[in-house]
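Question (not urgent): is this output format expected?
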Amino acid sequence: MPKIYVAGHRGMVGSAIVRNLIAKGHDPSRIIGRTHAELDLTDQAAVRQFFAIEKPDQVYLAAARVGGIHANNTYPAEFIYDNLMVQANVIDAAFRNGVKKLLFLGSSCIYPKLAPQPMSENALLTGFLEPTNEPYAVAKIAGIKICESYNRQYGTEHGVDYRSVMPTNLYGPGDNYHPENSHVIPALIRRFHEAKVNKTPTVTIWGSGKPYREFLFVDDMASASVYVMNLPKAQYEEHTKPMQSHINVGYGSDITIAQLAQTVGKVIGYTGQIDFDSTKPDGAPRKLMNSTLLKTLGWNPSVDIEEGLSIAYQDYLKKVLE
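Got this back:
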């Protein structure tokens, strides 16, 4: 049984990957992870030492500095620097220590702001990025290109097989519910829950409510990640290209932010009024992923938005009660 390192194993995606691996019969003792306090992935020497000692067979690179529009606007330097360093350090140390299989998790924000919808893999680097999260997007694009470059240079001689998956907007257990630095779903869950508890008559949402967004439950993302990691190399390469090897992972349909807010309110049981502050930024008008390639390879999501939000809300309530 392979020894698997999940970078970011306590994050929302990383912990879901660990759950999926264990559910599939992997020995928990063969799945390794390190907290930030135990291993700073921006520290090249520490990362190299970790890989030299642990010698994992597979790596899921799910560690990243992440956040919503506010966080991306407020901390652009940290978003580009930390993510670039983490990716470069982990991927290079994996190669230096004989790791043949690695999966890098990117983001849908790699695509141009006005990319044709739904966004397909070949839209990468065809236009300008969304300004509010450009530093994060540039770092994620670099991660894809690092994987492709190591495959290109070391694939034949060393058997390097580093793959990339691009998730749409994720949500679910383990999310970040910070009042300012969270993504849209956890932010809405917190806001609607507090409004319900405090009997607040109106909840105001950032933006016009008109942009469309696609959302994928995090355990579906974990399922897709493990699926792509374990696809036979010939099958994977048959459907990808050496310098365009990433695969989109989406739900397959999107909803407006206004529809999302109404659904969150329904799941939580909030009965007040929902308003929208159009003076706040909307971000990209639409970000629907074209996940045809992944479906062609045999994977489909299983959790719809209302079921996923119900599970996410229960997770939030546990955190509130802790």
